Amino acid sequence: MARIYVDKYTGTLERTDLYLVRLTMRDGTVIEDLEPRRLFPFSNTTMYITLLDKEEREVAFVRDLKELDEASVQALEDCFAEYYMIPKIEQLFDISEKFGSIKWKVKTDRGNVAFRIRNRQSDIKCLHGSTRVLIRDSNDNRYEIIDYTALDQHSRYLLFPYL
Question: So where are the chain's domains?
């Protein structure tokens, strides 16, 4: 089966489950249980979205969310909100280093949490040319600071040695 490019002229997407969508083509063809995935989930969130079948084979492709109708965009965004759920760090209470491990105590949009990271070079990423910071803890959980310049003064003070 050839790759199907989806836009507002070729088909629509409807969310059917937490992570799944249905593709209805303009010719009436319906493809069920497609799993949308961003090819560039951190650097380009609105472009290059693949739709995978149950065997994780690509069935369809969305070049840009701007090319879809509003309902299809909302269906994909709702799936992504569940699949790519990353707690947003709103405040840092403490960062301490001990035996090569860095312990963080933070407030996120999902509550207060404490976690450890192993390696500051590989586990803390400040995206080039951006104020966005991605953090991966020792259990492979991910956290995000949307804009470190918007943090309070104490939080910025704690964070800057690690950027």
Answer: 4-83, 89-162
